[in-house]
Structures are given as C-alpha cells and as structure tokens.
C-alpha cells in the first residue's frame, strides 16, 4: 500500500507545483531530523510541535514562543506539512529545528519518534496523522492538541472517518479546543471529559499582539490628502477579485477618490499582471503599491490609481489599519483566510459564502463586525453602507475588535491546561 501511495504522489506532483515542492523538500528530511536531534542531545524537555500550513503556523507560534520563554534550555522541534509554512517556519527563531514532517508511513514515523525521543508532542488545529499518533502512543509519549476544531462540518466526523477519528483522539492526554461546540463534538467521540477543555484560538493573541507592535512602526503607505476612502481586500484569489473589482467600480461612482488595496494570497508577478488586466476590464487604473519611503514610482506620488496591488508578503496586516472597510479572500473557494487581522485593526469586514465556517467568522458576525456576501452587488452594498455612514462603520469595527479582546489569552489557557494534564510544556 505504501509503495502504491508513493507512486500516486509522484504522479500527482507533476500537475501540482505545491505538491511537487513538498515532495522535493522532503528529500533527506529524515537525515536532517536525526542530525538536529543529535545536536540537541541532553537538552530537556524535548518538545515536538507540529502544524499543517501557514495559517496553523500562526497558531503554533505563540505556543512555541511561550514554551521557549518558560524552558530556555528545552529542545524544541517544529514540523509542518505544507510548503506554504516553509518560509514562515524558517524565520521563526523559537524552534531549535524546523522542517517538513516526513510522510505518515509507519517506518518513517517510527524513525522520527526514535530520533527526536520527545517528552511531549503537541499537534495544532486539525492535524491528526494516524501513524504518528499510534507510534507515539506505543512509546508512551504524551499527546496534546491545541486549537482543536471539529465544528463547522469537519470531514473527520463524516461516517467513514468518524471511527478512526474517535480511535485517534482517545490516545490524547489533552485536547484544547476553540469553542464549546468543538468540545461537545470531541466528547461525543468518547474522549474522557477531563482530557478536553475550551482554551480558544491562539491566532487571536497573535493578531492583537502584531497590531499593537505595529502601532509604533512607520506607515506602510501614506495616502495623499486627495485620497478618498480606502478599502483593503486581503489574501485574494481570482474568484475573490471577480467580486471585489466590480464592487470597487460601482463604489467609485459615489466615492470618486476611493482607493482599493488588493493583496493577492500569492503575490507573484503573475498575480499583479492578472489583477491589472482584470481592473482594466472594469475601467479601473491599477499599479503595484509602493511602500512609504520608496523612491517615486507609479502610484508613489500624486493621486493614486483606483487599485493598488500588494506584490510582497508581510504588509497586509498593517495595511488593514488604513482601511475604512475590508474584504478577506478565500470565501469563494471553500476556506476564508485570516479575518482576525482586520478585526484587530477595528475594521469592519466582509467574506464570501464558502468560508469554511471557522469559529471567528461566526463570532465576528454575531458581534456585528463581519458580513457575508454572495455577489459583487452584495459587496458594494455592504461596503457602501459603511462608507456612506462612517459612524456605523466605526461601530462595526469596534465590535469586531471587542470580540477578539474578549477571547484574548488562549496561549496561556492552552499551556496551563496541558500542564494540568501532565504535558511537560
């Protein structure tokens, strides 16, 4: 079965560059982990933290930073699954070693556990690899999950997967979940109540802390005085842009100086060209955003074009601070991206209908700081209401920020629960 899986992965990678990168980057990964483990011989406790992708790495980071602060001499290992986490993990100083998780073959997981010899394993969010869990349980390694999320239609609760999910979760000593609904679903799987606690989502801590730290930084972009209201659309895909750009064109009729800042989820040169061409189709001038302090270039001085395109990572969460209203992409493709960043900036926001039902979307919507739209007309109407009545927009943004503030502290709650359950973090 494993050789067949390897063959299937090889075939699929030819048509999927992201998968191809994941396979290529794993060449020699077992040896890299062995070398890292040997280098850290004698360091204790030995803690292995794992998450899937970039979004889950945001959840893992505050946990890893807190563990490092509490255990400066610990051996802290961080693994991830997806190439989207690679750059973020490489720039994170807390782990002693960060690398790809080997594929979940039985032999690979046995070798990984033997190499790292961890005192605890913490899986973040939805990660639940069977051979990793079973091998850890056989070796008596305490398992914990942070930011667990089953509500919203998790595939792990579907009929064919439910028995396996139940079996895996019963090997965990501690499961920290995002919401009461998640806790109820975990308990239905037969997990002992003492092993489950609602600890929250650590991304809230990250988002609030990043915004607070950015307050002392110079502005990313300094809009000219002639600029009208600013809307920011973050982490967009082509399906999002097909909604955002016609909405911007309609709003410009009522707000002639309006500027839309678009940050594609993958800010490549090809994405910039794609957005420029799409904007032209709606009669909108577009150019790359030139950050403050950069020598003059298109869009750097004078009246900005209608659409400014962000062509680099690391700016979006600060750009939300300039917005009168925001849109977070991914909601027309099955999984919305980070809605907490605009909320932390007191910005009212909009998402598409296929948002995947993350807990924060429901919470922000209940608070009145987030709206779900299904079309360009709906987006223009929702943004337009906030722009036409700025006081209402500020109230919605304040409600979004207050919702996050009320859930601050998930990192501390999670680690405290783990320690109560005997997890040496």
Descriptive overview:
The protein is an alpha/beta fold and 425 residues long. The chain folds into 2 domains: 2-200 and 409-420, 3-Deoxy-D-manno-octulosonic-acid transferase, N-terminal domain (Rossmann fold, 3-Layer(aba) Sandwich), CATH 3.40.50; 214-405, Glycogen Phosphorylase B (Rossmann fold). Helices cover 46% and strands 15% of the residues. It has helices spanning 2-13, 17-25, 29-39, 54-70, 86-90, 106-116, 130-139, 159-169, 180-188, 202-214, 238-254, 269-281, 316-319, 340-344, 359-367, 376-388, 390-405, 410-420, and strands spanning 46-51, 75-80, 97-100, 120-124, 143-148, 174-177, 196-198, 230-236, 259-264, 286-288, 307-309, 325-328, 349-351, 370-372. The chain has a 7-stranded parallel beta sheet with strand order 3-2-1-4-5-6-7, with helices on both faces. Helix 8 links the parallel strand 5 (143-148) and strand 6. The model is unreliable at 4-9 (pLDDT under 50).
Topology:
Elements: H1 2-13, H2 17-25, H3 29-39, E1 46-51, H4 54-70, E2 75-80, H5 86-90, E3 97-100, H6 106-116, E4 120-124, H7 130-139, E5 143-148, H8 159-169, E6 174-177, H9 180-188, E7 196-198, H10 202-214, E8 230-236, H11 238-254, E9 259-264, H12 269-281, E10 286-288, E11 307-309, H13 316-319, E12 325-328, H14 340-344, E13 349-351, H15 359-367, E14 370-372, H16 376-388, H17 390-405, H18 410-420
Parallel strand pairs: 1-2, 1-4, 2-3, 4-5, 5-6, 6-7, 8-9, 8-12, 9-11, 10-11, 12-13, 13-14
């Amino acid at each position: 079965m494993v050789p067949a899986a390897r063959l299937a992965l090889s075939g699929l990678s030819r048509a999927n560059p992201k998968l191809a990168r994941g396979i290529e980057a794993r060449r020699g990964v077992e040896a890299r982990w062995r070398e890292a483990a040997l280098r850290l011989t004698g360091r204790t406790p030995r803690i292995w933290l794992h998450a899937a992708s970039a979004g889950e790495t945001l959840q893992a980071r505050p946990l890893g930073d807190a563990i490092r602060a509490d255990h400066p001499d610990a051996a802290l290992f961080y693994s991830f699954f997806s190439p989207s986490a690679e750059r973020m993990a490489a720039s994170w100083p807390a782990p002693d070693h960060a690398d790809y998780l080997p594929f979940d073959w039985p032999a690979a997981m046995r070798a990984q556990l033997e190499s790292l010899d961890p005192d605890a394993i913490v899986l973040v969010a939805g990660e639940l690899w069977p051979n990793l869990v079973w091998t850890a349980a056989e070796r008596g390694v305490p398992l914990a999950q942070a930011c667990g999320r089953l509500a919203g239609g998790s595939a792990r609760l579907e009929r064919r997967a439910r028995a396996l999910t139940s079996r895996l979760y019963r090997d965990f000593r501690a499961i920290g979940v995002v919401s009461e609904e998640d806790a109820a679903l975990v308990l239905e799987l037969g997990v002992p109540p003492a092993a489950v606690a609602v600890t929250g989502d650590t991304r809230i801590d990250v988002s609030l802390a990043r915004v607070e730290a950015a307050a002392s930084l110079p502005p990313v972009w300094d809009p000219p005085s002639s600029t009208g209201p600013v809307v920011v659309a973050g982490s967009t895909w082509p399906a999002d842009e097909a909604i955002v750009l016609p909405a911007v064109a309609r709003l410009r009729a009522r707000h002639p100086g309006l500027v839309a800042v678009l940050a594609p989820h993958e800010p490549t040169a090809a994405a910039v060209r794609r957005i420029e061409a799409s904007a032209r189709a709606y009669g909108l001038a577009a150019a790359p955003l030139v950050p403050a302090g950069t020598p003059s270039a298109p869009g750097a001085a004078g009246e900005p074009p209608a659409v400014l395109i962000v062509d680099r990572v690391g700016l979006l969460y600060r750009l939300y601070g300039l917005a009168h209203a925001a849109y977070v992409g991914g909601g027309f493709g099955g999984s919305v991206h980070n809605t907490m960043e605009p909320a932390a900036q007191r910005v009212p926001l909009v998402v598409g209908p296929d948002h995947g039902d993350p807990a924060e979307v429901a919470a922000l919507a209940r608070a009145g700081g987030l709206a779900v739209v299904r079309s360009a007309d709906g987006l223009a109407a929702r943004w337009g209401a906030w722009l036409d009545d700025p006081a209402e927009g500020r109230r919605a943004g304040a409600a979004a920020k207050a919702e996050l503030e009320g859930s601050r502290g998930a990192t501390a709650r999670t680690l405290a629960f783990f320690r109560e359950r005997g997890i040496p973090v």
